[in-house]
Specification:
Layout (H helix, E strand, L loop, with lengths): L3 H9 L7 E2 L5 E3 L2 E2 H8 L3 E5 H18 L3 E6 L6 H9 L3 E4 L2 H9 L7 E3 L6 H10 L3 E4 L2 H10 L4 E8 L21 E2 H13 L3 E7 L10 H10 L7 E3 L17 H15 L5 E4 L3 H4 L3 E11 L5 E4 L8 H5 L6 E2 L7 E6 L8 E8 L7 E5 L20 E5 L2 E6 L4 H4 L8
Parallel strand pairs: 4-20, 5-6, 5-13, 6-7, 7-8, 8-9, 9-10, 9-11, 11-12, 12-13, 15-17
Antiparallel strand pairs: 1-2, 2-3, 4-14, 14-15, 14-19, 16-19, 17-18, 20-21
Helix pairs in contact: 3-10, 9-10
Length: about 425
């Protein structure tokens, strides 16, 4: 049987590097006691270890530069679309990719150099394309022939573009986040891509710089990434190849994702075999840059039953849709009694039976009023936060070296009703 000490060590391995338990038993992330943050800012609460994000961004940049010198890295910002995170990425010297006017607006507000912005989307509206052109976004990714027609009509001068190719590669991941297989809504399959390449090369307004490929998210093997590179090699030689993102992270004890170095090594190794040696490579990590460095803190509201035993908290699927949307597994702990305990159903407060944050998670003597921390929530939880049952979206804190700063305030009831139109 696993001892409490072993369970604590194993559990801390899912929290941001440097997380610890204080002598009185309280969990500390980014040098900040979670109990203190919850007392000041309330719950639910998103906490991001800022120093850990920055250190990881630098690690990935170093690995990419060592593997392929003519390369650049952009953050797939849909993973954490908050102005403060765009600012952090800009300060770390990397670009961002955006999908939609809101993400573009936040990127610009966060000080991202427009030349380092890549614009994505399988259904870009004319208004969004105008906004991207006006901002002078560095690259716009063509997803379909309608993008070509719209941009040729809207662009005033030469606009650099990439063409998104559907490589026919199905990685081992959730259906909801697999994007490279036949039948995906993203990009063009190889025959249609060839026709689009020929059309773009004839365009007087659009400069085809290269190809883009992205096969999905939360991928725990490097092999499918190499297959995607091989699949697009026969489309011709280009100046730029954007190889997307999708590297998975460790959500549970059993997960074993490739390291950033192994992932980048697989991409670069395949590129050396089949792509022009002088080409520029771009990667677009998203989840892997932020997920492991975020923690969500809840307060226990009620505990009932024995088989199963339900521990209900003051959040749920309004602040973490990944469980209900595609069954992502998380772990959790009581912040003042870390590790060990008996198996319970950690559930949310929303009116859906599917609102279970973690099924069969070990919590040690959880009681009403206790705080519960769920690690690895730095990606897509903020992204998909919603107002189910009138829930107010949680605040976001950046914690670093024992100091915390509020970067997104908690939503208020006034915010919730701010778009209501009063009766005439």
């Amino acid at each position: 049987m696993t001892t409490t000490a072993e369970s604590t060590t194993e559990l801390l391995g899912l929290f941001p590097p440097g997380s610890r338990v204080d002598p009185d038993g309280e969990l500390v992330v980014g040098g900040c006691r979670l109990a203190g943050l919850a007392a000041e800012w309330g719950t639910p609460l998103y906490v991001i270890d800022e120093a850990a994000v920055r250190a990881h961004v630098r690690r990935v940049r170093r690995a990419l530069g060592a593997a392929w010198p003519d390369s650049r890295m952009v953050f797939a910002s849909k993973a954490f679309p908050v102005t403060a995170m765009y600012r952090l990425m800009a300060e770390e010297g990397i670009g961002v990719d955006v999908a939609g006017a809101g993400e573009l607006a936040m990127a610009l507000a966060g000080g991202v150099d427009p030349a380092r912005i890549i614009v994505h989307g399988n259904a870009k509206t004319p208004a969004e394309l105008r906004m991207a052109l006006h901002a002078r976004a560095g690259l716009i990714v063509i997803d379909n022939t309608d993008d070509i027609e719209a941009l040729e009509e809207l662009a005033d001068g030469e606009q650099p573009v990439l063409l998104r190719v559907l490589p026919g590669v199905r990685p081992d991941t959730y259906d909801a986040v697999a994007t490279g297989q036949a039948g995906s809504k993203f990009g063009l399959p190889l025959p249609a891509a060839r026709a689009a390449i020929a059309r773009l090369r004839r365009s007087r307004k659009l400069r085809l710089d290269g190809l883009h490929v992205h096969i999905g998210s939360q991928i725990l093997s490097a092999e499918p990434f190499a297959h995607a590179v091989e699949a697009i090699a026969g489309l011709g030689e280009f100046r730029t190849y954007d190889l997307g993102g999708g590297l998975g992270v460790r959500y549970t004890y059993a997960d074993c994702p490739p390291s950033p170095e192994d992932w980048i090594g697989a991409l670069a190794g395949a590129a050396r075999q089949v792509l022009p040696s002088g080409a520029e490579l771009i990667i677009e990590p998203g989840r892997s840059l932020v997920a492991p460095f975020g923690v969500t803190v809840y307060r226990v509201v009620s505990v009932k039953g024995d088989d199963p035993r339900f521990v209900a908290v003051d959040g749920g699927m309004a602040d973490n849709m990944e469980v209900a949307l595609y069954g992502q597994r998380f772990e959790a702990t009581v912040t003042s009694r870390v590790g060990g305990g008996s198996r319970v159903e950690l559930v949310g407060r929303h009116c859906e039976s599917g609102d279970r944050l973690v099924s069969g998670v070990a919590l040690r003597d959880a009681r009403p009023g206790d705080l519960v921390a769920v690690p690895v929530t730095g990606a897509y939880c903020v992204t998909m936060a919603n107002n189910y049952n009138g829930a107010l979206r949680p605040p976001v804190l950046f914690a670093r070296d024992g100091q915390s700063r509020l970067v997104v305030r908690r939503e208020t009831l006034a915010d919730l009703m701010s778009r209501d139109v009063p009766p005439a």
